[in-house]
Amino acid sequence: MASRNMDTNQISGQTETSTEKREVKMFRLLCADFFQRKFLRKTIPVSKCSSSADALSGVKVLDLTRVLAGPYCTQILGDLGADILKVERLKVGDDTRSWGPPFVGNTSCYFISINRNKKSICVDLKSHDGMKIIQELAKQSDVLVENYLPGKMEEYGLGYEDLKAINPQLIYCSITGYGSSGPYASRPGYDVIASSMGGLIYVTGPEDGAPCKTGVALTDLATGLYAHGAIMAALFQRQKTGCGQRISANLLSTQVACLVNLGSNYLMAGQEAKRWGTAHESIVPYQAFATSDGYITIGGTNDRQFRELCSRIKRVQLSSDPKYLTNALRVEHRRELVEELGKTLSTKTNAEWLELFQGAHFSYGPINSLSEVFADPQVQYNEMVQEINHPSAGTLKLVGPPVKFSGTGNRIRLPPPELGQHTESVLRERLGYSLTQIQQLRDIGVVN
Asked: Which of these, 247, 252, 216, lies nearest to 234 by C-alpha position?
């Protein structure tokens, strides 16, 4: 009996195991099918993949930013097709409208460079009626971007929690100097200060000279790019969850993140960075050299490229010198190698060297003035300069978007707006205000 019971139990156990296996298999198939339908690309006929519609068409962005990082972020979104509504101060507008000369018409070239594909309305945020207008616009917006001092939007009744209560799907991006909280949160944030504190200026400039700021505000621009990427990610996340969220970006954190290899060298090897001029602390040669009529930047970033460089400048003996056989050795003997290369490179013009380097496997290029940049055949081929008509300034030449898509628009659709150009049309068409109501708001200084 004991034997028979054991056999029965064994048979029963095998049956249960088989059933469990079938159930597990079925569960996995169901999960795979769900994942396939929800997250993976559906098979779509090629004929239906040729649309050139703007990627962010239909996305409404409420832009309460000024100066550079914020407007640069929203301009990128506008190039991709988002509807950007720029909210500006009455009569004055964005600070950069007056940052000139040079001016084109009554608008500075600075403002023009970062505010295309936007509409402008002027609203007094401090007034109760102005607050209501922004709340009404936020209720129908997908994204809000602001770069006020931390706490200021809350004072206006326009903080994240205020607007989340009326639009839970709103993606609310705050760009600050140092963060929304912390010991420096209340300080005004500007590029040159954040790049000073974040190490960029410390490592920029001649090796034996004083620290230098970069020619353009790279920390501002990088922050705008980080914010733009975060907004795109939040829009994608919202498709899955149906919920908005708050995004916090700041100049200081962005700059620290942009230290990349220098930050890594310090954190993991204890190596303090220093200024190298145009040179690289870990690669030699990789810097600018004087020619007989200008400067050319050359990168022999590996042993093969270094040998080719030496061959093309007819200094083959340098590549076989035991002091320069590897990059580590070239870094060790940097000064004498750079001096030798410099002696040779100074004997010809930029044009002569560019001709001799044609087809080389190492990287090279002249240090161009802006006139040379925009005359460069590759820049022209890439269509980096585009034209659009402006209501008061005539035809504008603008630097266009640098990224091209095969099936999505990324383009200049609208010129930078005049101050308050769209106040009336937005209040009427989006919010349903009558002309009488708009005039009353003008009379009491809420809009213009």
From this structure: 247
